[in-house]
Design a protein that fits this description.
Layout (H helix, E strand, L loop, with lengths): L2 H28 L14 E7 L6 H9 L8 E8 L5 H11 L4 E7 L5 H10 L5 E5 L4 E2 L3 H8 L5 E10 L6 H23 L9 E5 L13 H11 L3 E12 L5 H21 L10 H35 L3 H24 L16 H13 L1 H14 L16
Parallel strand pairs: 1-2, 1-4, 2-3, 6-8
Antiparallel strand pairs: 4-7, 5-8, 6-7
Helix pairs in contact: 1-6, 1-9, 1-10, 6-11, 8-9, 8-12, 9-12, 10-11
Amino acid sequence: MELVELVFAGTFLALLAGLLSYFLLTLAFSRKPSTIQKKPFFPTLTMIIATFNEAKVLPKKLANTLDLDYPREKFEILIVDSGSTDSTRKIINDLIQKESQVKIRLLTQEERLGKSAALNYALENCSSEIVVLSDADVVVSKDALLQAAANFNDVTVGAVSGIEVIQNPDESSATKLEGGYRSFYNTLRLGESNLDSVMMCESEFSAYRRELLGTMPCNVMCDDMELTVQTRKKGFRAVYDPNVLFYEYSPSKFVARVKHKIRRGQANQQTLLRYVDILFKREYGKFSSVIMPFEFFMNIISPVLTAVCLATYFLMVFFYFNVFSVFLPLVMLVLTGFALFVSLRILSPAPHITLKNSKSNSGLHMIVSIIDLISLESILLFSLLSLLFSGPKYIWEKIEDTRRVS
């Protein structure tokens, strides 16, 4: 066997072993009952919403927020606006004048400095026991605050996030793929939560003990992962609650979806590289010995392995065109698909976190979504190279396709 064939087989098997083992591990733990001592609990709570030219979606967001179930005397809304040039601030100020039950405050920045800078400014002006972060284009279930707050009855919990439900799962091929990916993603995160602590709470809706949050560097791209790791480093768990639901539109075009994945990949990779020093530290339990190493593998190592695998495959086909070089990879892919199919049949995703509003949620659709996940390795490779050679980009162009009123 030629050296190039050995390199191909080795990298392919390493890639398969890493991804499949973590998927099976989190899939199994996602079905275990939660150990969180969840009971009705009503701490003071502030929802922080960062805005930049969100006039289109802000009225819907504010109406949804005011309709949430939570004791009014313990709830406030804090909006930090970073240099909006549309009617965002007017919408907020008009509501402040009209609203009498819920306290609403507006903080302003004249220049857009990035979301981390906006959140730092908001946190400096927030003294509630619990801080909830939520995006302007996201709506949440009516009991989301009550469900999230109940987790903080458990003194080991420092952060809580929930399940994203895509509002347009059947609009296009891109949204169908994202819907399947989300089912897989939610399974993975719930498995991490039951194992120890999630790697990342969702920026769309997440809650934290205020006392645990420090100032973030302004060049941080991934505030959600940054705050989650901060929480775990201070000895508290970050958990997923499948009863906390939030709703968001997914990009309907493949180009927009790819841009979003590149941005998300760079953000995750930056944070993982920032906290590489806590890998395999005993004081952080399974978070640093199992969860973070696998996340590091999936986001940073596996894209490199994928590139090596593809490069050696094309070298085999070009220089050693034979049955082995052409058909061995196909056989390995078939075996991979069979292994995924069997694992999904034996350990199907936990029923309470599947995508209930999608018309296509079969085992076949789940397999397609996992194949899509593997195909995203090329995007992760591109995002990693861009991060290393171009540096972090903490001010992003918004995806207008996801900002819808209806």
